[in-house]
Structures are given as structure tokens and as C-alpha cells.
Amino acid sequence: LRSFTVMCLQSEVPGSAEVQTMRVYLRVRPFSKEELSDNEDQGCVVIESSQTVTLNAPKGSANMKSSEKGIGVSLHKFAFSQIFGPETTQSELFDLTVKSQTHDFLEGKNALIFSYGVTNAGKTYTIQGTPQDPGILPRVLDATFHYSEGRQYEGMDLKPYLRNDAQYLDPDQVKQERSAKAAIFASVKEVREVFFNFIFYLSFFFFFPKV
Ligand SMILES: Nc1ncnc2c1ncn2[C@@H]1O[C@H](COP(=O)(O)OP(=O)(O)OP(=O)(O)O)[C@@H](O)[C@H]1O
């Protein structure tokens, strides 16, 4: 059964260090034309309700063979926070799963999202998507940039520190930072001028080699 992806979403509960919430979603992708022509659609994944699914072992599979011999069962029922069928669009999936967590994340709460499934299940399509049909990641980035519009800190007295922290600078430190920045820009300008002069002389000799 190569046609489904499981997506887990774990987020922090405000005001509690210990209690964690985890939601597990199932997405069943449509069969491709090649899979349909290979008769892979055997009704193995049956969505019973928005939260329960029944999996029937495919014909000829080890699971089916052992159940025919009376060992084990060929039918399994699973429950999920929510199940999304093959008709679900990228935007519907985002709106119904990650959207509210994105808002919480932007307000400072931690969240973890991961997808799980066998090869060809649709993990990349779900997380990354295509330029025409973006997945969760570009949609979260889009929401993040929209959220940060008009919220940028205009002051110059904050400096990134380590991986995810910032230091406040006093007025003297701000002055030092400004002069260090000016020195960097001046050296870049100098390098650029030397480079352009070099290109100019090179093209001059190329066009007038005998001068
Ligand atoms: N919901 C969907 N609608 C339409 N096509 C889909 C959907 N999900 C996946 N596909 C298509 O199914 C194929 C397999 O999907 P994808 O590459 O995302 O699988 P994967 O789980 O990332 O595989 P792998 O683990 O091998 O990288 C791709 O051609 C993809 O475009």
C-alpha cells in the first residue's frame, strides 16, 4: 500500500511544561494513471469516516496469504485525528491541520510537524508540494512573512547572539557596530572598484591588442 502518508503534529500547550498534544493525520493520495493501469486499485484503503480507516491486505501479499491459511487477519482498522481522502487539495489540508499551529508558533509556542510513510506515499508532495500546488512548508513560510509585515524592529540596538537569541547594545556598542559596518562596506566598494578596473583593462587589451 503505497498511497498514504501519515502526518504528525505536536505542539506545546500554553501554561504547561509537561502536557503535550499530538495530532496524527492520514492523507490518502489518488492513484496515478500508471498505478490504475497496473490494477493497483484493489480497494485496499477504505475510509470509513473522517477518523477511521480500514486496510485490506492486497491480493497475493504475505499478509493475505497467511490470513488465507488462518494465521493472522487481512483486515486492520485504524483511527486518526482526521483522515483526508484523495480529493483533498493542498490548501484544504493546510487550513484544516497546520494553519492554527502556525499562528501559535508565531506567538512563540513550539511545534513539530513530520510526515511518515513508505516510498512514493506522498510525503514530499504534502510537505513541499509543487510550484503550482504548494505544500505545507511554503504555506507556513508565506503565513510567517505575512505575519511579520509591519512588525520589524527598526532600532539598531539589537544584535543576534548564538543561534536564537539577541543582545541589547548600549549607545557606545551601537557606535562600534556602525563603524565596523561602514568599514566592511568601504572594503567591499574598494574590491568592487579594483575588479571593475581589471575587467575594463582586460576588455581594452582584448579589443586593441596592439596598442
Ligand atoms: N495528494 C496528491 N495528489 C496528487 N499527486 C500526488 C499526491 N501525493 C503524491 N502525489 C504524487 O505521487 C508521487 C509520489 O509522491 P512523493 O514523491 O511525494 O512521495 P514520497 O513519499 O515523498 O516518496 P519518497 O519517500 O520515495 O521520496 C509523486 O508523483 C507525487 O506528485
From TrEMBL:
A Pfam cross-reference name: Kinesin
GO CC terms, sorted: mitotic spindle; nucleus; spindle microtubule
PANTHER family to which the protein is assigned, alphabetical: KINESIN FAMILY MEMBER 20B, KINESIN-LIKE PROTEIN KIF11
UniProt xrefs under Gene3D superfamilies: Kinesin motor domain
Top-rank taxon, per record: Eukaryota
Biological process, per Gene Ontology: microtubule-based movement; mitotic spindle assembly; spindle elongation
Kinesin motor domain ranges (all copies): 21-211
Alphabetized SUPFAM superfamilies for the sequence: P-loop containing nucleoside triphosphate hydrolases
Transmembrane segments: none
GO-annotated molecular function: ATP binding; microtubule binding; plus-end-directed microtubule motor activity
Principal cellular location given in the protein's record: cytoplasm
Protein's recorded name: Kinesin motor domain-containing protein
Entry annotated with the keyword RNA-binding: no
Residues binding ATP, per UniProt: 117-124
Compartments in which it is found: Cytoplasm, Cytoskeleton, Spindle
